[in-house]
Amino acid sequence: MSMIEENRAQASAALPGPSLAGVEDFLALLKPRVMSLVVITALTSFVAAPAGLHPVLAAVALLCIAVGAGASGALNMWWDADIDAVMSRTANRPVPAGRVTPGEALAFGMTLSVGSVLMLGLTANWLAAGLLAFTIFFYVVVYTMWLKRWTPQNIVIGGLAGAMPPMVAWAAATGTVGLESAVLVALIFMWTPPHFWALCLIKSDDYARAGVPMLTITAGPDETRRQILLYSIALAPLGVAPAFVGLGGPLYLAVAIVVGLEFLRRAVKVYRVREGDAARKAAGGLFGFSLIHLFALFFVLIAEKLVGIAPLTGPVPGWM
């Protein structure tokens, strides 16, 4: 029996009996910090889309997308209870800590998954609902059940699930999948590896103890730093791309250049500083700033739309 299987058996054996969960534990299953990213990126598509739902329907559709993301988080915690139990960062999550039983987490996640997809289809359209269903499936089955435990490219490929909310929202608002939303998906997709690998440089021991083949373990920290730098270089042009596909205006372009250069500066520092506390501090600095970077870009897109700043270019022909 592998270590993962032993941990899963121990976790299941340690969690008999009725649930001790409170409302806050079921909220924690939804991964609210991840949901906040989903909400802001999906909201950006709703605001920027040239056609739109009625505001009430748009609010319901946004809630469906957020709940779908939360359902993915609950199912992720159900499946990963064994490895969460041996990682200091995740040991106090509701399932490994014993406050929510695995069966409850599974039922909670499945109910919310099905409900969010059906409600989005009825509220907006079935293209958006299909994309949401694909996103949930990709995160739970492709990433959580397969990629995470079998390949160091788990974050790279699995990052597609976290990148999809803007496209789901764009489809809900317009009934189509446009180049604009594809650019936003590509931006988040390319942002995800350096964001998570920076964390992995700090928490490598946790992942090694859990048997998760993160890049820091399979290829080593130096190769991880090199990959962070390469992805950060590729991310830089994607950060400014929304300004050239009819989404961002001059304010967005200026902010994207500034935060993109700062992201790249921090990635270079992670690549160069490799020893001791200074290396951990550099990785932590990149991880923290990566959140500021992404939120800043999407907040500015929303702000420009709300105050009436026109995009630098019009909609891309043939996509709307």
From TrEMBL:
Its EC number is 2.5.1.141. It comes from the Bacteria. Its main location: membrane. It is an enzyme of class 2 (transferase). GO terms for cellular component: plasma membrane. Signal peptide: none annotated. The chain crosses the membrane at residues 34-53, 59-79, 100-120, 126-146, 167-191, 228-261, 282-303. GO terms for molecular function: protoheme IX farnesyltransferase activity. NCBIfam families: cyoE_ctaB, PRK04375.1-2. This is Protoheme IX farnesyltransferase.
